[in-house]
Amino acid sequence: MKYYLFVIRDDHKCDNDAYLYSMLESLKLLGSENYNYGFSLYHSLCYFFNDSILKNYIEKKYHLKCEDNIYTLKDDTSFSINKSCCWIKTNKHLKEVLCIFYIYHKNIFVCNFDNQEYFWLRDKFK
């Protein structure tokens, strides 16, 4: 399963979760001809990830190396850290990887677009 992580702006964290998911899914499906609209919409909903801080933390704390912008764990779990979003691909230990991102920021919204699932990261760590 592939999960996408977005840091949501404070003014959108109390909105309807289904609507937020729908907006993020629309951004994912948006074609390059609507790049300016998508960029504007993304910035109204989300913050950029500080990818250099996250990468440095992961490499020092967990001794993981990035190859082609992808980190791979022993159990075939992989994840990537980008400025706009991060993704995790796993069939097993999602919570362990999510913990890294929970330490980074509490307003992360997680989407599995293939199964139309979504949740707030903070709800997994209450």
Characterize the structure shown.
With 126 residues, this protein is α+β, with helices and mostly antiparallel strands. Helices cover 37% and strands 25% of the residues. The chain has one domain (2-125): TATA-Binding Protein (2-Layer Sandwich). It is built from four helices and eight strands. Strands 1, 2, 3, 4, 5, 6, 7 and 8 form an eight-stranded antiparallel beta sheet that branches. Strand 3 (66-67) and strand 4 form a beta hairpin. It is globular and about 40 Å long.
Question: What is the topological layout?
Answer:
Elements lengths: L1 E7 L8 H13 L5 H11 E2 L3 H11 L4 E2 L2 E3 L5 E4 L4 E4 L4 H11 L3 E5 L4 E4 L6
Antiparallel strand pairs: 1-2, 1-6, 1-7, 3-4, 4-5, 5-6, 7-8
Number of helices: 4
Number of domains: 1
The CATH topology turns out to be: TATA-Binding Protein
Strand segment tally: 8
- The helix/strand series, from N terminus to C terminus, equals EHHEHEEEEHEE
Name of the level-1 CATH class: Alpha Beta
Give a short overview.
The protein has 126 residues and is α+β, with helices and mostly antiparallel strands. Helices cover 37% and strands 25% of the residues. It has one domain (2-125): TATA-Binding Protein.
What attributes characterize this protein structure?
37% helix; 126 residues; TATA-Binding Protein; alpha+beta; 8-stranded antiparallel sheet; 8 strands; 25% strand
